[in-house]
UniProtKB/TrEMBL annotation:
Protein family membership: Belongs to the polyribonucleotide nucleotidyltransferase family.
Cited SUPFAM superfamilies: Eukaryotic type KH-domain (KH-domain type I) (SSF54791), Nucleic acid-binding proteins (SSF50249), Polynucleotide phosphorylase/guanosine pentaphosphate synthase (PNPase/GPSI), domain 3 (SSF46915), Ribonuclease PH domain 2-like (SSF55666), Ribosomal protein S5 domain 2-like (SSF54211)
Enzyme category, top tier: transferase
Protein name, per record: Polyribonucleotide nucleotidyltransferase 1, mitochondrial
Keywords, sorted A to Z: Acetylation, Cytoplasm, Exonuclease, Hydrolase, Membrane, Mitochondrion, mRNA processing, Nuclease, Nucleotidyltransferase, Phosphoprotein, RNA-binding, Transferase, Transit peptide, Transport
SMART domains reported in the protein's UniProt record: KH, S1
CDD domains on file: KH-I_PNPT1, RNase_PH_PNPase_1
Source organism phylogeny: Eukaryota, Metazoa, Chordata, Craniata, Vertebrata
Cross-referenced Gene3D superfamilies: GHMP Kinase, N-terminal domain, K Homology domain, type 1, Nucleic acid-binding proteins, Polyribonucleotide nucleotidyltransferase, RNA-binding domain
Pfam family, one: S1
Amino acid sequence: GSAVVQLGETSVMVTAVSKTKPSPSQFMPLVVDYRQKAAAAGRIPTNYLRRELGTTDNEILTSRLIDRSIRPLFPAGYFYDTQVLCNLLAVDGVNDPDVLAINAASAALALSDIPWHGPIGAVRVGMVNGELLVNPTRAEMASSSLNLVVAGAPSSQVVMIEASAENVLQQDFCHAVKVGVKHTQQIIHAIQQMVREQKVTKRTPTKMFSVPTEMVEHVRRLSSERIYAVFTDYAHDKISRDEAINKVRLETEEELKEKFPQAEPFEVIESFNAVTKEIFRDLVLNEYRRCDGRELTALRKISCDVDLFKPLHGSALFQRGQTQVCEKHKANYIMCVLSGVPISSAVAGVAIGLISKANPDKPTEIEDYRLLTDILGIEDYLGDMDFKLAGTNKGITALQADVKIPGLPLKVVMEAIQQATVAKREILGIMNQCIAKPRERRKENGPVVENVRVPVSKRARFVGPGGYNLRKLQAQTGVTISQVDEETFSVFAPTPGAMNEAQDFIKEICKDDQDHQLEFGAVYTATITEIRDIGVMVKLYPNMSPVLLHNSQLDHKRIKHPSALGLEVGQEIQVKYFGRDPTDGRMRLSRKVLQSPAATVVKTLSEKQSITMGSSSIHRDGSDS
């Protein structure tokens, strides 16, 4: 199937294809490839080869967005290679193409003969000044405090949610989800109308994988009690529980191979997995018991500690259950607080899981369900949802929901948000007991940034020939220096000690032995330190950077080299001070103004402008008389 979806001047084409023979792999081999080529914007790629190269991060994230929206609606056991290729045909810079790609993929699959329980619809919801906007433009999103992408299925069910927000209140966020789902139904109805017009008929797969009933019953008789005993033994931790289940698995599989010698290896494995999943889910649904003994809404044991490593700007250890995360000066909340970064409020995250029971008459509807707070890995693997929410005590900052069933009722989504909010506040309380606010004072080894003023007249000395002094300063102290303006340099030091060392270095370079207040127009004695082709380098006082006295300022006579005046290194000469050049701050000196002007010979001719020689005279016009 194929479809082209357009919004404004942005167009996306999606093609979907699936093989007619099943794949040997025992999972749904779905490939979603979204490509955003430069030609869609009327441009040539700006890389060296002027060619489209590998996929970008944005293309990968958009592909995942599409995959997570359409994957839950494929039939269980449909293990056929399927590809969904999305090409951006044109982009106007106003409307984002990612949501269009989801809708185009939905239309392409719905119009194809590929078995798929769609269609779905997707919209983006923004919030500007408290007002919700559906499919806002890029300009509107720049000022939006919410970026919510929601994919909905028929009957106002939710398939996928992804959102980032600027501390949006829970009630506003829930309202945005409801508005988004409502607008997805319009897209779904439009696709359904096209399907009816095209009279699409879905093909019947030649083979759908299902676990053999006889093998499942045999596993129940052999191992159900032992599996139940493992899941109800709360003395187990993650590792010991996995080891116990694997021990039962190996013993059961050996007996299955003897009982069913013709069975495929994956049938043996899936038979045991089916019974394990059934027992695990029944414990939650019927007995309200989790495999680690917690209540459905209880968190694992949480502990956190800070300042584990003193030399670092910040370090923290956060442990939940058997999972530990050690951070060293990265962008999570605790690390920013430890480093003195003025974070406005604490941020925490939690994952909510789902164990559901489908309606036997309508498999797409949920008959019963249980929401689980702070899910384990096994609860994610054997469950129906991974609903991750992050935020502050005030509101929500991020949310991502991965769903394995064809859709969630809005009621379940709202309950998941509420349950996650309660758990999030409990986690924040534990974190605030550890460290409640950013440090008012930085650690002794914290980074420091200061501005240093270097007069223009001393900039050459500060930088050094070819930047030698700057490189030396950075190599010795570890600081980084960047120029702000003509007289100001920004110095970034990893520690206050490095900053002090850098400041001492700069003062030593730029300081003078004595503070000379030179007077404009005054005459001073200068010492020649170097003779060059274009002039001489002189000093007015010790520890002063030599100043060039150009040939044009040495004497009234035009000379090509200072040696023409008999000047030598070490010789003292008188110069006049004329201040500093306003552009580069260099000292302006002159010796020429102190020299007597050269005598000029003026010859005055007679009135007749002639010179008499003997008895003859020669006029200026050359005639003789």
